[in-house]
Design brief:
It is a single chain. Helix 9 (271-275) links the parallel strand 9 and strand 10 (281-282). The chain has helices at 40-55, 63-73, 80-101, 105-108, 128-141, 183-201, 217-227, 246-253, 271-275, 291-304, 319-331, 345-350, 376-380; strands at residues 3-11, 17-24, 29-33, 117-125, 145-150, 178-181, 206-210, 234-236, 258-260, 281-282, 308-309, 338-339, 356-358, 361-363, 391-394, 399-400. The chain is built from 13 helices and 16 strands. It folds into 2 domains: 3-104, 2-Layer Sandwich (Enolase-like, domain 1); 108-367, Enolase-like C-terminal domain (TIM Barrel). The protein starts with a strand and ends with a strand. Helices cover 37% and strands 17% of the residues. The protein is of the alpha/beta class. Helix 6 packs parallel to helix 7 (217-227) and helix 7 packs parallel to helix 8. The longest helix is centred in the N-terminal third of the chain and has 22 residues, at 80-101. The strands form 3 sheets. Strands 4, 5, 7, 8, 9, 10, 11, 12, 13 and 14 form a 10-stranded mixed β-sheet that branches. A 3-stranded antiparallel β-sheet has the order 1-2-3. Strands 6-15-16 form a 3-stranded mixed β-sheet. Bound molecules: D-gluconic acid (GCO) and magnesium ion.
């Protein structure tokens, strides 16, 4: 099965998505997500100008060799743009191989390790009461695990809190919007949120929380310790992870489980975190970490150290990533949880998919391949719109991590 051609489809059904479609001489095609929020067109150029010319004529079945060809062949290794482009090719080739075999992708990855995939949804609100009312509606929808974020008194806006309850989309400006942050205010407020959440819902639902890289290690340790009575499923991205050793300090201070990895693009970004058991969940995704081929290596390393997976699944990851991730999640032994932020009906219509939600879990379905398609005619009706993630400043104006 030879690759005949490939093209990149850019569409904005409410938010931007980049999709790679690889066509073969056998009439089959494969799809891969190539969306990098706020930097979409850099990946489009990387694919169109540098990758697609190398794909034409290659044997579509040689997934590993193609991965190595694009990774080693570029000479310039790693980084989110490169690894997102490689991920798109890799996902499309796995999709093709599974379609050629007439099997759902999870069968090629070793078959089912479980019947369905536990997911978590996002409850948020401008204050604690509103956030907890949202938790109640997620419980009603059947969710068993819920991330909770809420506004902090004295701060005009906070990460994770949206006007549109179900479809949080942070890339909201044609230029970056500016947020204001105070770690002191946040650290005082957040334990109250979880105290009230446990008082209202008991200890049955799993609760998660995302710090979004905003604290220093010692502040993160303090937050983790103050949340211990409320038994979080995980505390996410408590501090930036460029310095992996920073997590030693957090670990010394708290037994709240830690989850990291949505911005990582390579196994080398998390090697120390995993080998030194400084985290409990690794959150790398199919689309930003080099595709299924590379994610399997990361999960394999993590399995040696009892670190489980918790793949990133925000709305900026297209349904193509979600489909591929679910096959991966279903197959590996050390799966932990999958993030599931719902896409809008417009996005779902552009990307018809086989995966389905029931009772707090997702199942990928049994269609050959990863089970996600793209309606190109519909996609063409939603042209690209430049959109940025916000930036974040401390109250004195200093630029901080968003
Ligand atoms: C999450 C993430 C997202 C990111 C977004 C950036 O845990 O879901 O933190 O909300 O901010 O994916 O593009
Ligand atoms: Mg996050």
């Amino acid at each position: 099965m030879k690759i005949e051609s490939a093209k990149v489809i850019v569409t904005c059904p409410g938010r931007n998505f980049v999709t790679l479609k690889i066509m073969t001489d056998e009439g089959l095609y494969g799809l891969g997500d190539a969306t990098l929020n706020g930097r979409e067109l850099a990946v489009v150029s990387y694919l169109e100008d540098h990758v697609i010319p190398c794909l034409v004529g290659r044997d579509a079945h040689r997934i590993e060799d193609t991965w190595q060809y694009l990774y080693r062949g570029a000479y310039w290794r790693r980084g989110p743009v490169t690894m997102t482009a490689i991920a798109a090719v890799d996902t499309a080739l796995w999709d093709l191989k599974a379609k050629a075999a007439g099997l759902p992708l999870y069968q090629l990855l070793g078959g089912k390790s479980r019947e369905s995939v536990l997911v978590y949804g996002h409850a948020n609100g401008k204050d604690i009461e509103q956030a907890l009312d949202e938790v109640a509606s997620y419980v009603d929808m059947g969710y068993k695990a819920i991330r909770i974020q809420c506004g902090v008194p004295g701060l005009p806006s906070t990460y994770g809190v949206s006007k549109d309850r179900l479809f949080y989309e942070p890339a909201d400006g044609a230029l970056p919007t500016e947020n204001v942050w105070s770690s002191e205010k946040y650290l005082d407020w957040t334990p109250k949120l979880f105290e009230k959440a446990r008082a209202r819902f008991g200890f049955e639902p799993h609760f998660l929380h995302d710090v979004h890289h905003r604290l220093t290690p010692i502040e993160a340790a303090r937050l983790g310790r103050s949340l211990e009575p409320y038994r979080l499923f995980w505390l996410e991205d408590p501090t930036p992870a460029e310095n992996q050793q920073a997590f030693r300090l957090i670990r010394q201070g708290t037994v709240t489980p830690l989850a990291v990895g949505e911005v990582f693009s390579s196994i080398h970004d998390c090697r120390e975190l995993i080998e030194e058991q400084l985290i409990d969940y690794i959150r790398c995704t199919v689309v930003h970490a080099g595709g299924i081929t590379h994610l399997r290596q990361i999960a394999g390393l993590a399995a040696l150290y009892q670190v489980r997976t918790g793949c990133h699944g925000a709305t900026d990851l297209s349904p193509v990533t979600m489909g591929a991730a679910l096959h991966f999640d279903l197959s590996i032994h050390n799966f932990g949880i999958q993030e599931y932020m719902r896409h809008t009906p417009e996005t779902d219509a552009v990307f018809p998919h086989a995966y389905q939600f029931a009772q707090g879990s997702l199942a990928p379905g049994d269609q050959p391949g990863h089970g996600v398609d793209v309606d190109e005619e519909l996609a063409a009706q939603y042209p690209y719109r430049r959109a940025y993630l916000p930036v974040n400043r401390l109250q004195d104006g200093t630029l901080h991590n968003w």
